[in-house]
Amino acid sequence: MAPTPPPSRPSPLDAVHQEMGATMVDFAGWSMPLRYGSETAEHLAVRSGVGVFDLSHMGEIELVGAGAGAALDHAVVSDLSEMVDGRAKYTMLCAPDGGVLDDLVVYRLAAERWLVIANAANTLLDLGELTARAGGFDATVRDRSEDWALVAVQGPGAASLLAPLVDRELAELRYYAIVPAELEGAGVLLARTGYTGEDGFEVLVRPEDARLVWDRLLERKGEGGKDAAPVPAGLAARDTLRLEAGMPLYGHELSTARTPYEAGLGRVVAGNGPADYIGREALRERAGQQASERLVGLASSGRRVPRAGCPVMAPGSGRKVGEVTSGAPSPTLGKPIAMAYVEASFAEVGTELRVEVRASSEPVEVVPLPFYRRPR
To answer: What tens digit of pLDDT does each residue of 346-357 get?
Structure first.
């Protein structure tokens, strides 16, 4: 008899999700809200106003010590120690052969204190890798995931929602920056980051204060547009928002089978700097090669939605030239969209292809990524 899987781990905000009637799902061992009502309405609320997400399933790993920055330079593919206090960088943890183990956001809280935000499914792997790679450096690696809840406030109305609640001038908080703050008396770390393609903030808060922060954010009443009342949003809306914004998802666009270059993210890889990071030689070699495949955007003129794993075919010959990594109906664009890896000769914008969706062959066109950019 197969062993009974352990129960899903509840978020610090589990009670409020239950009270709000959220549809709950198991995600990377956590019980998390998929949606509260209509995922399309939640998506559109973030695009036009503001949505509030519980992201407490994300992992938090802290590195402290005089050698913490140097340890991270060795562990990940970016030169992080060059950052100033209070800034963040998107980077990747790679295997020696250049394959992606996880994508991360790293915050420099102080010269000797760094915070790594890891994907929920990879937190234990990342913890083990960072601990091993920090060996020989004056740095201590700690799993701080139990010490933080994470609430995201995303959308064009995010700043106006947060401004009266925090003791910081939000206009002075740059994109990919983080500051300690107070939110209605709760001590938080406030970062201007997100995963939706919109302006927004991520609030790291102690679990015992998470309900206070959540309630205060959702108490605000609005009148429409950027000042609309905030809407709780679940993982389904977060996924379609990130897809429209062309943001990769680990296990879909990113995996150990591909390097950052195939994903079009070679910009995160340190060039000729001093950092001797794991995977450097493999990635240097890969940087000098022409890609055999590329990650592209696909827009469908059909009604069926391409999903992860669907084959991408060359029209006429019927030969498979790629595979969909993520796909969904786009609430903003009003048509199905997808990201896919395709052979480089089929990756030019405007190329017409077909995607096999169940028993149907749907026409698609290669389009630029991202599918959506927020108005400036």
So the answer is: 999 999 999 999
